[in-house]
């Protein structure tokens, strides 16, 4: 009895497959008629992408009255409109924040097609700046740190190594 049911089931499947193939074949024949035309949509999605190149900075103050300047380059690129945020964590101890001033300057920031501007921002350690909305492209710039050792209260500058971290955050604006 079980073999009989298996044979019947196989015959039903084979008949169904033949009908399906026959129906598909007729449908294909109808699509091949010379006066039949159609269109097909093709969608291509390009993901937003950005790159950032940064270099570490080193400054050495040797004696009271010293003022040292250190400048390093950076590069930002993207295929979509972005805004760049630059944030300084600040030095530890915080009184070292008073010894340094940062300046960030964009050499070729594109704000609108065919227009280049020179953007420049000053900011203190522990603070941040935002650029205007930038169009797709590759931009170069510099960040400069000016450090000064005050003559009058020079003993407040305790010998040691002080570190700040500057974060660049690229945010899509589209």
Can you characterise this structure?
The chain is of the alpha+beta class. It has 2 domains: 38 residues; 123 residues, Jelly Rolls. It contains 1 helix and 8 strands. The strands form 2 sheets. It has a 5-stranded antiparallel sheet with strand order 1-2-7-4-5, with no helix packed on it. Strands 6-3-8 form a 3-stranded antiparallel sheet, with no helix packed on it. A hairpin with a 2-residue loop joins β4 and β5. It is rod-shaped and about 95 Å long. The N and C termini lie far apart (69 Å). About 15% of the residues have low confidence.
Low-confidence parts:
4-29
The main β sheet shows up as: 5 strands, antiparallel
Q: Give the name of the CATH architecture of the largest domain.
A: Sandwich
- Strand percentage: 35-45%
User: pLDDT average, as an integer?
Assistant: 79
Number of helices: 1
What distance separates the N and C termini?
69 Å
CATH class of the largest domain: Mainly Beta
Query: What fraction, in percent, of the residue positions are helical?
Result: 10-25%
Note the quaternary state here: single chain
**Which structural category do the helix and sheet elements fall into?**
alpha+beta
Secondary structure tally: strands? 8
Total individual domains: 2
* C-alpha Rg (nearest Å): 33 Å
| Pattern of helices and strands | HEEEEEEEE
In CATH, the topology of the largest domain is named: Jelly Rolls
List the strand order in the largest sheet.
1-2-7-4-5
What is the overall shape?
Answer: rod-shaped
């Amino acid at each position: 009895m079980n073999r009989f049911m298996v044979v019947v089931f196989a015959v039903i499947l084979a008949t169904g497959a033949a009908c399906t193939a026959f129906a598909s074949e007729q449908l294909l024949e109808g699509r091949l008629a010379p006066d039949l035309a159609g269109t097909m949509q093709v969608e291509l999605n390009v993901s937003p992408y950005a790159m950032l190149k940064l270099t570490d900075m080193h400054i050495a103050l040797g004696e009271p009255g010293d003022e040292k300047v250190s400048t390093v380059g950076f590069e930002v690129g993207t295929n979509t409109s972005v805004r760049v945020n630059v944030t300084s964590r600040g030095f530890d101890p915080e009184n070292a924040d008073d010894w340094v001033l940062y300046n960030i300057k964009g050499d070729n920031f594109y704000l609108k097609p065919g227009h280049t501007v020179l953007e420049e921002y000053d900011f203190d350690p522990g603070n941040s700046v935002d650029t205007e909305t930038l169009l797709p492209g590759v931009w170069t710039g510099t960040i400069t740190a000016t450090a000064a050792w005050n003559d009058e209260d020079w003993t407040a500058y305790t010998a040691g190594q002080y570190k700040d971290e500057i974060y660049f955050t690229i945010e899509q604006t589209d």
